[in-house]
């Protein structure tokens, strides 16, 4: 049974209350189970705040030194699992402050001068996300390295390019992999943009209106590696748009990971057999001995839904909130922590999957010989060499495709006479035009799939991303 009378004396805000909170409210109100993740950031922010108070002669230097020493001792206690977190103290801020007062006495009671938990928590979250953004960017770079390595090994490996999951045109596997390098490159710039935009320090905004103490917000911002202090105290404690942006970018990364995971799942299936995923990233079946399931890729695909859900969670939370702080904002942390853990786990697994890939070049080439992948090249031949308008060339090519389907053969298996029966102007050069190797080598427009261009694109990607 919780001692409610004892709790009423221990909470920092209990002075105006005669009784204690309901046990049910205490349980609902507590966030320590998840916001203890912020202990490093909370201690860093508190040390910077206390140093500023001392510099501004709001507290004595002796008080600051005792506060700093006490906070560093608390940090060590937490890291060695000797710190006792108390649910009745609600959150990481009050747990640390309460322990500080136990350790150093009255000097600890001065720490919260010119500060509120409202500006304290948003500062903690910003510092935490800022570090997390750097970690995610590093992981994305590692993934790009592995994708580029595979692209370099397969710059001239021929495979079908698909639209609507139907064979469309010949491409190289290296070209396909570089598409993901570009997508993750944009993700990386979004992460950096997010970091740049959020790098303003809210500390010193207090509850919402600022403070009458002669504080130096620029000093604190600099100490905590922010570019500047936030400009409006109400906005400082109200806004979580930086967290929404963070979750939005993570959701996009998750979607991009899901798309490559889906292709790897398809390509490794028995119907394709283009690739084999390393054994260490697959699992078996409890009943079917032959199975080798791409579980890592499937879970990455599944986790993307969760990341989107966390984004929707927070953005929905914010839409009805008035300025400035409301307790609803306590719910911002779990989506942040959950998305961080899951996106990093997904990227790490995708790095391993890509590194482990074994490519079946023969299967890719065999698949490319079905589905008339050089039909567009045939139409281009009719336009370029026979001066036939493209729309007419498109219709002629369609009729030739019908003929090949009726004969159950590929385009290059049709005889010249059969081709001429559809369009009399067709000459011997057509056979070279519709060969797969010719099709690939002719795609020389910037960003195209020609192996020569793919090699250039690989060099360019290394320069821009690695």
Topology at a glance:
Layout (H helix, E strand, L loop, with lengths): L3 H7 L12 H7 L2 H4 L3 H17 L5 H19 L12 H13 L1 H4 L7 H37 L4 E6 L2 E7 H26 L1 E2 L15 H7 L4 E2 L3 H6 L2 H28 L6 E2 L18 H25 L13 H24 L1 E2 L1 H8 L6 H12 L3 H18 L8 H7 L7 H4 L2 H7 L8 H15 L1
Parallel strand pairs: 3-4
Antiparallel strand pairs: 1-2, 5-6
Helix pairs in contact: 4-5, 4-8, 4-10, 5-6, 8-9, 8-14, 8-21, 9-12, 9-21, 12-13, 12-14, 13-14, 16-17
Give a written overview of the molecule:
The protein has 466 residues and is mainly alpha-helical. The protein folds into 3 domains: 110 residues, Fumarase C, Chain B, domain 1; 232 residues, Fumarase C, Chain A, domain 2; 87 residues, Fumarase/aspartase (C-terminal domain) (Ribonucleotide Reductase Protein R1, domain 1), CATH 1.10.40.30. It has 21 helices and 6 strands. The strands form 3 sheets. The protein has a two-stranded antiparallel ribbon with strand order 1-2. Strands 3-4 form a two-stranded parallel sheet. Strand 1 and strand 2 form a beta hairpin.
Evaluate the radius of gyration. Answer: 31 Å
Mean of pLDDT: 94
User: Which class do the helix and strand fractions yield?
Assistant: mainly alpha
How is the CATH topology of the largest domain named? Fumarase C, Chain A, domain 2
Q: Give the neighbour order of strands across the main sheet.
A: 1-2
Give the name of the CATH superfamily of the largest domain: Fumarase/aspartase (Central domain)
Largest sheet: 2 strands, antiparallel
Q: What series of H and E elements makes up the topology?
A: HHHHHHHHEEHEHEHHEHHEHHHHHHH
Given the structure, what is the number of helices? 21
Shape: elongated
Count of folded domains: 3
Strand content: under 5%
């Amino acid at each position: 049974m919780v001692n409610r009378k004892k709790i009423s004396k221990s909470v920092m805000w209990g002075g105006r209350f005669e009784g204690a909170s309901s046990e049910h409210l205490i349980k609902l109100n507590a966030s320590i189970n998840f916001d203890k993740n912020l202990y490093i950031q909370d201690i860093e922010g508190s040390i910077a705040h206390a140093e500023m108070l001392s510099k501004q002669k709001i507290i004595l230097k002796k008080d600051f030194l005792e506060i700093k020493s006490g906070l560093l001792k608390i940090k060590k206690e937490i890291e060695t699992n000797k710190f006792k977190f108390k649910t009745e103290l609600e959150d990481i801020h009050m747990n640390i402050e309460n322990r500080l007062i136990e350790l150093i006495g009255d000097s600890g009671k001065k720490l919260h001068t010119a500060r509120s938990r409202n500006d304290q928590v948003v500062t903690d979250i910003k510092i935490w996300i800022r570090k997390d953004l750097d970690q995610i960017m590093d992981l994305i770079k590692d993934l790009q390295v592995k994708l580029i390595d595979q692209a370099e090994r397969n710059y001239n490996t021929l495979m079908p390019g698909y639209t609507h999951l139907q064979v469309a045109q010949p491409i190289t596997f290296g070209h396909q992999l570089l598409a993901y390098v570009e997508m993750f490159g944009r993700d990386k710039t979004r992460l950096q943009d997010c970091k740049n935009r959020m790098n303003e320090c809210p500390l010193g905004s207090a509850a919402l209106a600022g403070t009458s103490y002669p504080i130096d917000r620029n000093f604190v911002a600099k100490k905590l590696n922010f570019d500047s202090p936030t400009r409006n105290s109400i906005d400082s404690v109200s806004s979580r748009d930086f967290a929404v942006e963070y979750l939005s970018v993570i959701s996009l990364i998750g979607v991009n990971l899901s798309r490559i995971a889906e292709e790897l799942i398809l390509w490794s299936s028995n119907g394709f057999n283009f690739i084999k995923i390393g054994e260490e990233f697959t699992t078996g079946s409890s009943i079917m001995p032959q199975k080798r399931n791409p579980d890592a890729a499937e879970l990455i695909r599944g986790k993307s839904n969760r990341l989107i859900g966390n984004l929707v969670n927070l953005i929905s939370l914010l839409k009805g909130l008035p300025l400035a702080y409301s307790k609803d904002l306590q719910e911002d942390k779990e989506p942040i922590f959950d998305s961080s853990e899951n996106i990093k786990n997904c990227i790490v697994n995708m790095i391993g999957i890509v590194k482990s890939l074994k490519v079946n070049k023969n299967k890719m080439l065999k698949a490319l010989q079905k589905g008339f992948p050089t039909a567009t090249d045939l139409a281009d031949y009719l336009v370029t060499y026979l001066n036939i308008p493209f729309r007419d060339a498109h219709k002629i090519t369609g009729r030739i495709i019908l003929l090949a389907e009726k004969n159950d053969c590929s385009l290059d298996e049709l005889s010249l006479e059969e081709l001429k029966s559809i369009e009399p102007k067709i000459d011997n050069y057509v056979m070279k035009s519709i060969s797969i190797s010719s099709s690939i080598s002719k795609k020389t427009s910037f960003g195209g799939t020609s192996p020569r261009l793919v090699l250039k694109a690989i060099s360019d990607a290394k320069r821009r991303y690695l």
